[in-house]
Automatic annotation (TrEMBL):
Residues 18-223 form the SGNH hydrolase-type esterase domain. Keywords: Acyltransferase, Transferase. The keyword Acyltransferase applies. This is Diglucosylglycerate octanoyltransferase. InterPro entries: OctT, SGNH_hydro, SGNH_hydro_sf. Gene3D superfamilies: SGNH hydrolase.
Amino acid sequence: MTSSDETAARPALLVLADSLSYYGPEGGLPVDDPRLWPNLVAAELGWTVELVARIGWTSRDAWWALTQDPRVWAAIPRAGAVVLGIGGMDSLPSPLPTALREQIRYIRPPALRRVVRAGYQVVQPVLSHLGWPVALPPRLSVEYLEQTRAALAYVRPELPVIGTYPSVHRCDAYGRVHSGREPAVRALRAWSAETNVPMVDLADAVRPNIESENANPDGIHWGWDAHVAVAEAMLTVLRPVAAEAVTRTP
């Protein structure tokens, strides 16, 4: 068997996430960097990784990826588990409409785009102190997560799905405000209880790092010890899943 055949034969850890999954203490990295938590988890389990993520993604974007990205479709048949490492962005204050932020890149000419972006960067942290509205209300976050879970269950009823509670931050760009986290956690906890989706609390795993000098200076992305802590938390949930997968293998 060739190495490519061996790789294809191994289960894949399919991760739908935001930039927390591929940023380190100095910025974004290629998804195959072995220090990132999805790769730490996969290496421990002997699996491969399919990481589909982008900066600023919410639970709605994860749903769109599931329904529109053929890379995700290709990964589902060989997935050993799916991690919805998404939702932290949902709970951040977004006093200016998310659609406005997303459309800034399309403004022309470039000089006007730079002016608008600079203005947004000035206003966003100031208005964030209001704490409301958030990027995606808890009700909608859960709705998109449930649509994602249900779609996966329709295709592969036995496929384990793991959810996450939002991380924490001390990011000046959001006024160091995260009043939307607790309502999000309550909604996610209720969803987990209704659907039996196991949850990993990212905040518990990364709080010591975020509050230290070892995190990314932006105050929202993690340092390497946080990636290790998240991987350990994920493995607590995924090791039994991996063991059951081996048991089911003919």
